[in-house]
Design brief:
alpha+beta, 8 strands, about 30% helix, six-stranded antiparallel beta sheet, two-stranded parallel ribbon, Cathepsin B, Chain A
């Protein structure tokens, strides 16, 4: 397996089941030297909803009908928003959502965000990006190298650093849709 060169500013964190958003937020908090909050607490604040059989290992998660975006957090709802979480825990951060259709040149825009030391989380349809089954997923964008993007994937049983085609990532984010918050979440 070829080693992927990355910026190394992030420490990969592995998610609990259905907790990709949670683990990515932990990576951002850790990089910024802010208090690290447990995945259970973050999950509760972000409305984590899981299948009933996962309630034993995720006692603070909700159960119920599978959401449109798939099992996991419900950050598209105001009461479970990332900014609400930041405010409640007195974290000096702000999250802003950008759908890919609102960005003229995604490559340049992403480079600009990273150069300004912002954290960028990308939300996409997993199966569309990796040609397999899969629901919505998020990863932290580490860097851009030509037409490739280095992602830090919090998923269990997958490489932590993954090199993907930018065009394919854009397509997978767009495919996931605005209603599921497919696109880019910038934290600054």
């Amino acid at each position: 397996m070829k080693k992927i060169k990355c910026s190394s500013k992030y420490t990969p964190i592995v998610q609990k089941p259905y907790g990709c958003v949670i683990a990515c937020l932990q990576m951002v908090l850790f990089r910024r030297g802010l208090k690290l909050i447990s995945q259970d607490k973050i999950g509760f604040e972000l409305g984590l909803i899981v299948p009933k059989e996962f309630k034993k290992i995720l006692p603070f998660a909700r159960t119920g009908k599978k959401p449109l975006a798939g099992w996991g957090t419900q950050v598209q709802k105001e009461k479970y928003s990332i900014n609400r979480f930041f405010k409640k825990y007195n974290l000096p951060l702000k999250e802003e959502y950008f759908h890919v259709s609102k960005i003229k040149n995604v490559k340049n825009w992403l480079r600009e965000q990273l150069e300004q030391d912002r954290d960028v989380i990308v939300c996409f349809k997993y199966g569309k990006l990796y040609n397999c089954k899969g629901q919505g997923h998020v990863s932290v964008i580490d860097s851009i190298k030509g037409k490739k993007v280095i992602l830090i994937d919090p998923g269990r049983n997958v490489p932590k650093y993954r090199k993907v085609e930018l065009d394919k990532l854009i397509n997978a984010a767009n495919f996931h849709g605005k209603e599921c918050r497919g696109g880019f979440w910038v934290i600054g």
